[in-house]
Amino acid sequence: MSVDAPATTPNYQALSDEAFEERCTDLWERYADCDLCAYECHVDRTAGQEGTCQVDDTASVSTYFPHFGEEDCLKGHNGSGTIFLANCNMKCVFCQNFETGHEAEGEPATPEEIAEMALELEAQGCHNINFVSPTHHSPHLVEAVKIATDRGLELPIVWNCGGYERPAILERLEGIVDIYMPDVKWSDDAAAAMYSKAPNYWSNVRESLREMHRQVGDLRIDDTGLATGGLLVRHLVMPNHVENAKRVLAFLAEELSEETVVDIMAQYQPHYKAKTEDVYADINRPITEDEYDEVIEYARDVGLERLYLDRSMLQNRGFSWF
Ligand code: SF4
Fold first, then answer.
1. Nearest CA to ligand 1 atom 2
2. 0.85 exceeded by the pTM?
3. Can you list the domains of the chain with their CATH numbers?
């Protein structure tokens, strides 16, 4: 397995005060005519208007804690310092976190308070700061990183998103985010529109992945097994959508890099509307072992080897994993 020399310093420590300030100013101004994600709602969130993410310019945090359920290279021994933002810029009908993602459960938090959460997680020994569903509050988070940096933060920043980003906004994060971790959900715009209410998802996510990879490259892992920077892609295999998974994997291998680290996830369960509304009947079941096998065989066929795989689906089935 090829692994580049690890970066030892988070990106943002090399960013000047002036560059941070310019990024913060630009991003905060966007709340007034919001184009922070691919929906491009152009609502004035500073005046209380809400776009698809259903939140004004007040960020809320639903919870933060050392997370031991993330990939090995993020959780390490002490956990990934996860900060869950309330609401989401996607509207997946199968969302397993719909209480926080769709129904705005959380406490309002200023950039200063988010910075203090990050520092608290660092003091607890976490290996990174992992912003979950960050996109719709990127102004708060960039400012929080700046405040935390000034107070001594030294951990890599993880951007744990649904992939419905805008390359123009991602450019504003260059030099701030160390690890991009998009959950690439769909390679089929019709399915994305139906199940995630995200028009043109596949066009958007391909351009976003190119921009993420341009900035941070393939995932780098140090000699203690921890990720220090780069791109880590997640894909949740969906029932009756094996071809969808294959197109995602083919794109990663053929148009980004065969060194892309991919977590091919098998834990799909029909939550939220997917288990109650007949129109979503084809995703109202877990995936089968055969579906999962077909996807990971395909990943190998296209040259992807740096894979996180679901061990519970692979027991005694002769596969090895990253
Ligand atoms: S962040 Fe929210 S308001 Fe802004 S473009 Fe995206 S969905 Fe619309």
1. 53
2. yes
3. 11-314 (3.20.20.70)
